[in-house]
Amino acid sequence: MFIFYTTNNYTASGPKKGGYNTDVLGWKQVSTSVYPTVRLAESVYGGDQYELAIKVTLFSGNWWIRVGSEWMGYYPAGGPDGLFNAAGLLNQAQSIDWGGEVVDESSHPGPTGTWMGSGHFPYEGWSRAAYMRNLAYQSDTSGTMVNMLGYTHETNPNAYRIAADFSGTTTWGSNCYWGGPGGVE
Predict the structure, then answer these.
(1) Structural contact between residues 131 and 177, judged by C-beta atoms closer than 8 angstroms
(2) By CB neighbour count within 10 A (0-12 exposed, 13-18 middle, 19+ buried), where does 106 fall?
(3) Which of 19, 140, 170, 176 is 20 to 30 A from 105, comparing alpha carbons?
(4) Dist CA 34 CA 39 (whole Å)
(5) How far apart are CA 134 and CA 122, in angstroms?
(6) Contact at 8 Å (CB) between 74 and 30?
């Protein structure tokens, strides 16, 4: 599992600018058992499947991340360690994205062979492709949860795909299957 933040629309990385996990100043770790880069239970292709509940919420001036029933930590929104200003994420978010990501060294020639998700395409479905379900966001301070009504975006559909139902009308709420083997441009 990884986390990432940006204060400048992904234009630069560094302390109070943005970055992965604990690589740059910003993340405040709280949990002693769940943390960025932790390896969690992994589903088995065609076998046992594991689900992970994740929640991101703005509470008491900080963006908290909960994994399962454990509050992992937070990004301070304001105050002396604050990362965000009033034009950004200080008081609210304007959008949320869920999905998969593959990162390779910039010096690596050609396409990456890194799998996304299970390494299989969405059309293979349950127990074979990675999925996310019950994607929702909190729409007000009283805790009202609303199904995500999003759209899909694929940067390399030959290597990675996504199949989504963001109607919120299924027993899986807003959901998607995603992934692929990589290795092609």
Answers:
(1) yes
(2) exposed
(3) 176
(4) 9
(5) 17
(6) yes
Q: Are 1 and 66 in contact (CB under 8 A)?
A: no
pTM: 0.84
Q: Cα separation of 148 and 65, whole Å?
A: 18
The closest of 169, 177, 170 to 152, measured between CA atoms, is 177
Instruction: Tell me which amino acid residue 176 is.
Output: C
The per-residue pLDDT for range 21-80, each reduced to its tens digit, is 999 989 999 999 999 999 888 899 999 999 999 998 888 889 999 999 999 999 998 888
| Nearest by Cα to 46 from 113, 118, 146, 142 | 118
Place of tokens 């995500």: 148
Query: Comparing C-alpha atoms, which of 140, 145, 137, 133 is closest to residue 177?
Result: 133
Q: How far is CA 69 from the centre of its chain?
A: 17
* Sign, Cα dihedral of 19, 21, 22, 27: positive
Tokens of 59: 């509470």
